[in-house]
Specification:
By secondary structure, the chain is mostly helical. The chain is 80% helix and 0% strand.
Length: 284
Amino acid sequence: MTGKSKSILYLHLSVLLMGFAGVIIKYVSVSSAVITFGRVFFSSIVLFCVLKAKKERLKLNCRLDIYIAVFAGIIMALHWFSFMHSIRLSTVAIGTITYSTYPVFVAFIEPLIFKEKFKPSNILLAAVMLFGLFITIPSASFENSMTLGILWGMISSASYAALSLLNRYLSEKYTSQKVCFYEQSIACIAMLPVIFISKPVFKPTDVFLIIVLGVLCTAVAQALFVESLKNVKATTAGIVSGMESVYGILLALLILREVPGIREIAGGIIILSAALASSLKSRQ
């Protein structure tokens, strides 16, 4: 298997794990902010153990990289909170599909930052995905929770677009485990005040599910995603990440019995088609 093919495999596995996170969130009773803290807390512990086991140097090379890592960690905290809050307010389908529009942001920002040419094919695929999103989202007023879930999903989308571009810079200089460790740790510190302010009461199942979120759906998933960026551009990775909504809808159907309507199915098919087309284009 070539390096690019392996990166595509890592990318799809990462997206599948992230899609599963949406289902788990529905079973946790504490607030979205508390879930965010617990998620990055456990993931940072796992990543620290991995780095120590590999005897990898923790220090970053320069002050600029430290600033970028801190900024990326804060953006990650915002992304996880807005993503989980979107799902809590609406459904797994709405939360994952609105989040998956982030390639639209990346397709226009990435060439400007990295001084690359605009590729019409990437912009076209991102536009197709956005069209799939519009088909999927039902019309609603701004006074109900469904619309609020959509708005939080768009915040999640924009923040993840910024995070993926920061990850592309960091992944060129450091291993995926180190990049994720810094981001998760800084996100944990950023969310620490939430614990002191809210003083949450955890059920035993809450603790177990948050550990699963932190270890499997965050530490492992993020490491795979960042690793894939070594051979896949953020634009392509973003389009493939649109499959998270498809995985999330299918898992929600099987586990939560959230039955998608015709609009969700149609939008999911369009998004999946764009993601598969991007995967094939990247491998070529």
